[in-house]
Amino acid sequence: MRRVLILGGTAEARALAGELTACGVRVVSSLAGRVSDPRLPVGEVREGGFGGPDGLAAWLRAERIDAVVDATHPFAARMTASAAEAADRTGVPLLILRRPGWHEEPGDAWLRVPTLEGAAGLIGAGDRVFLTTGRRSLPVFTRLSDAWFLARSVDPPEPPVPDNVHVILSRGPYTVEGELALIRDHRLGVLVTKDSGGSMTTAKLVAARRAGLRVVMVDRPPPPPGRLHVATVAEAADWARGRRRGPRP
Prior knowledge:
With 249 residues, the protein is an alpha/beta fold. The chain contains 8 helices and 12 strands.
């Protein structure tokens, strides 16, 4: 039986695990363990890291994995780099599954930056910011004591949390009406987010457009060069079943 490792945690990873399992492929889904109550895919699940490229390469050999699909978050650059290195060492084929990023629409006012630090540099004194870049990014922004932040994350951030940061814990999908209510109730003027793509959190972008918010968009890191990549679960499933070699890099 064909055995496929899915590096995941995303909605696409869960969908891919379900599709491959239904087709008789034995799937192992790997979760980083950074979320306390993750949504689990069907099939076998492995939680926690591998110990870098060396550990992942050893695991691929020991488990006789036939193919790896990297369906991690578009900003999980370290995991993607480890997967690429481990694939090179073992000769196990690797495919990167990345949902498309977001694009501006009429009425948007986006400023694109390459890093979180670049986003923090665009926050001015007195700004009231809707911060949706994840709990691990908070230290980049909390040094800005002359701005106020409404930070949203799935799990609580590490303390201490400064007085100018109000944290709300929630998980998408979100509604435009709900996002507009947050913007209105907290008198927000700036949205800072990462170009994660997907439909689960696009409501904040629609709400920002309607409310006239300035949007600071952090660009996703580029994938490792020379790797096969697809944008849909269907393409990844075909490749993982061995039905196609995948698109050219």
